[in-house]
Amino acid sequence: MTQNKVHSSINVLGLSIGLASVMLIILYIKDEVSYDRFHKEVGAIHRIVSQQYNEGGLPENKESITGYLQGPRFMAGIPEIEQYVRLHGDRVDVKTGTEVFSQELLRSDPNFFSMFSFPLIHGNPETCLGNPNSVVISEDFALRQFGSLDAVGKTLMLKGRESFAANTATESFEPHTVTAVAKRSPENSSIKFDMVLPLEVPQEALGNDYNWFNFFLNTFVSLQPGANVATVDEKMQQLYVSQSSEVAKILNAQYGGYDIPATYYLQPFTDMHLNAELSVGNGLSDASSPTYSYVLSAIAVFILLIACINFINLAVARSVRRSREIGIRKVVGGKRKQLILQFLGESLLLCLIAFALAIPLVQMALPLLNELSNKALALSYLFDARLVLGYVALFVSTGFLAGFYPALILSKFKPVDTLYNRFVLSGKNRLQKSLVVLQFALASFLIIGTLVINRQFDYLISQELGYDDSNLVLVEKQGLTREELALFRDRLVSGGNILEVEGKSGGSWVTVAKVGTGKQIQFVQETVSQGYAPLLDLSMSAGRNFSMDHPSDATQGVLVNEAFVREAGWEDPIGQTVDYWYNQTKFTVIGVVKDYHYDSLLQKIGPQLFTMKPTDGLGMMYVKIASGRATAALGDIEGAFKELFPIQPYSYDFLQDRNLKNYETEAKWKQIVMLSALLTIFISCIGLFALSMLAAEKRTKEIGVRKVLGASARNVVTLLSRDFIALVIFSLLLSIPMAWFVAGRWLQNYPYRIHLGWQIFAWAALLVLLIALSTVCFQAIRAALAKPVKSLRTE
Amino acid sequence: MLLQLDNIFKWVTIGGQRIFLLKDINLQVEEGEFISIMGPSGSGKSTLLNVIGMLDSFDEGQYHFMGESVHNLKEKHRANLYKAYIGFVFQSYHLLDELTVKENLEMPLIYKNIKGSERKALVADMLDRFNIVGKKDLFPGQLSGGQQQLVGIARALISNPKLILADEPTGNLNSKQGEEIMELFKALNREGVTIIQVTHSEQNAQYGSRVIELLDGRMV
Questions:
Q1: What is the pTM for the complete model shown?
Q2: How far is C-alpha A679 from the geometric centre of its chain's CA atoms?
Q3: Which of A279, A426, B160, B169 is most buried, taking the most CB atoms under 10 A from its CB?
Q4: Which of A709, A789, A792 lies closest to B108 in CB terms?
Q5: What is the ipTM of this complex?
Q6: Do residue A357 and residue A246 come from a single domain?
Q7: Which domains are seen in chain B, by residue range?
Q8: Do A495 and A405 share a domain, yes or no?
Q9: For residues B38 and B45, is the Cβ–Cβ distance under 8 A?
């Protein structure tokens, strides 16, 4: 009786874990596909995107962004387009009292709130962005800033765009009037905002055909009901070609690469979130790779499958014990159909219990899923009419899947055999064995996956970067001048907590130039202060660093890295020239920096060039602090910054933290795969546990005989474990090549990766074997220690 | 003397009450004896046999087997003792269904760590002695009950025990087969093997040299 309970609970526990994982994944996928569907006219909304071609006329990248012209020009020429909205993301400094902080925002055409369904709490959606000095804020922002939702008419001081260039005056903040307060953007929205400002389009920009080629924003259009998207695509293409071809010719002559016009087409709004080819950026967020959905569903289905396998295996195995019951039922007149129904009913009942248990499991696991997926899913999300229907389908199909086969087998028994104990379950049990093999193959596959991902992750974060990123604090300061940098350095270095301060251009800038005889190469250009290379402890493989002793360095000298030298094909790089032909400037290479990982290890080290041209602004200060004095040093930095740049938002970041953030995706996958490996091995083990228990039980007599004939406990344990361990070894033989192949393919994504040695597989195999062995041994030892008398009693 | 039981008690406690399975058993067995234990169902015959065979424990009393005090021995030593000196024959044979006759015979030798070549020789001897060479590759299911019991006895004898314990060895056999088995026991006994059998049948009991009657766990 208790054994029955053990079996049932194993069945139920396994199944509920399986069901819970599927439910979690359904939640996840539902959220994924629900993105942006809350907009009323979502079917009509499309984004203008294009396919770009390279010089040879081969398809290159797909471009998801557009410029000023695409929206208005296409709408003017294509009657199917009802309206367009251009939007892009930006940051602005907001001043409240003496505090200045930097705020993310959207800049958009004024009909933003008529195309998209973002309800306003206060304000008029038609007119709220009509005035250039208007601003729409979110309810969160309103509460944070004004302490109430009733913020319409209040004023915000925002830094003007012009002041950006001038970069000086304290008076450059301009008053903006809050015209509307919007509800918080839904979680499943690609457009999320705390602040929207009207997009200002310079009048002259609209007449300038060069702007066909200046991409920086997203253009959305909504089509008239019944409009044919293919027709619109065609019309856009015609319009584009006819209006842009002249400028394209000029550009082609100048730079090359413009001979094949891009192909414009419309991307449905709802297709955006999960499209891996067309990026979601420039004001849009939450791009997601469908890979996540695929992999997660596969894992959830794996887990459910394994749980169902347990169910089937246990039911079949238990049939031995139930054979007598079946015999009696048949003798007293039970028909086969009735028996099938009875067993199906039993499995559905167990399934129902598992189902009920799965719901609290889902609730418990939700925070974890939210953390892994960066979502804020709630259990209430589950109770949606269609989903509930889905769950019922899931439940019924699981119940049938897990119950039908055993029901068929069990009901087939001949009553006489079972009653007179002549019954032997067909010795081989191929199905049972192959299912165990399948389970463990999946489990070991995932365990190998976990090990590989862990090793790769450790490799990524522990690899030598080629420079010293320790104790480096990055402080952003837009439009930093050399004088400001010097001031800042003087202030800080004297304190003793800070060793050195250098500057570098803000983001990374990819550009092209001609080298030597006219070869054109693409590279990352960094503008740095003189001591940047020594600060990062970069080593020079030839030449020298920038120096004050050579005044020409500032205007004509550049450092390049080894990758640049290789790309340029220089034998002797020092003294070679880099020619920016398009603005008629030439530089001379004065030194070669050893390659270092200026970007994450996910990127190959590419050509890189450093200038210290004084006309190029710096954007980031690199502050080297004395080790062990972080707290004091950070205080010093903040103090100096606030004093020197009172109207600049202050924020800092440790370079090491920033480097680590590069691998967040990997860290996440690491967790996901590890978790699913744990679950699968756990469910596989409870299945194996139950099977070994049943096997031990089935062989009680045999074990008794063997013991009486002199078998030691160890003999018995070996006897009982051997078969199962053979199955596990077989499953390892299946999974290792598969895992080797998949892991190898996955590692191909990384330019810097671990070597896939046999050790990983050996460790995984050992681990799986140990886990399986301890599971099986538990039962085997119990059986081996039992006294033989009981099992040998003659009925 | 082969073995001696002194004041052996064995009981189980059900609902706070002791129910005696064996009560004050005193028994001496000399080498070469052929003893039949008789008594109605539930009188403790099999329990006594199991105690003698060291498969079952007792709660009180002393048991000496070939000079060793069994009651003081640890489980492992006890197992070694019965492995070395005692062979068991069961009513329902307890042959392993998935092993052939030959393999069934070989099994006890494997557990005694006897070498492969020696095992083969011993098995061949035994097959020869019991006239079942032709059946060596058959499975138990392919044999008649009498033949199965023959194999069961052969298996008990293969490790050359001093004592054979047989629990209703003819219980599942027809009278002719039963007679043959009993004749076999008699022959073995003449060769010097001590035999203790449990039986219901007066007729079978006649083969023995001594009869012990049990009633409610007591010798009468």
A1: 0.76
A2: 21
A3: B169
A4: A709
A5: 0.83
A6: no
A7: 3-219 (3.40.50.300)
A8: no
A9: yes
